[in-house]
Design goal:
The structure is a single chain. This protein has 151 residues and is α+β, with helices and mostly antiparallel strands. It has a single domain, classed as Lysozyme. It has six helices and two strands, in the order αααββααα. The chain has a two-stranded antiparallel sheet with strand order 1-2. A hairpin with a 2-residue loop joins strand 1 and strand 2. It is globular, with a radius of gyration of 14 Å.
């Protein structure tokens, strides 16, 4: 994961490494999910109508009206994990509801908070416990020698 982050950063991607590493571990079951293995999509990035690349359709859990439901969604397929991270950077840099995260590149908790849904605005995840889950994984990764959650 570290080399994917380094490659993405060398190619101009802007993101917080601790947050992206934790999100990727959570979203991809530590890199073991079908989506991570077969589509190099470690961040659960869906393929909207603007996506022109390859896709893979898989069931996914979403929280709608406070209830967890399983829906089929098209996800983006990437040539590598670093491409997935570069696309994540592009998404947060170009979509108005994510741009605030760029103000917190060196502050993992606020970077993550800026990605999450706010009143009447979309966000990265529908799970109301997403922040807590990412923080828990980030602290585990930090204990294993990964990027620091809080500097």
């Amino acid at each position: 994961m570290r080399s994917a982050c380094e490659t993405a950063a060398q190619n101009g991607a802007k993101f917080n490494e601790a947050v992206v590493t934790a999100m990727a571990a959570l979203e991809s079951a530590w890199g073991t999910s079908y989506l991570a293995r077969e589509a190099n999509n470690i961040l659960g990035i869906k393929a909207g109508t603007s996506w022109k690349g390859e896709t893979v359709v898989l069931p996914t859990r979403e929280v709608k009206d406070g209830k967890e439901v399983v829906v089929k969604s098209a996800f983006r397929k990437y040539p590598s994990w670093s491409h997935c991270i570069m696309d994540f950077s592009e998404i947060i840099s170009t979509r108005l509801h994510f741009k605030k995260a760029l103000d917190y590149l060196n502050d993992p908790p606020f970077f993550l908070l800026a990605l999450l849904p706010r009143k009447n605005k979309p966000g990265w995840a529908t799970d109301p416990l997403y922040f807590e889950k990412v923080v828990r994984v980030a602290k585990e990764i930090e204990s294993l020698g990964g990027p620091k959650w809080v500097k």
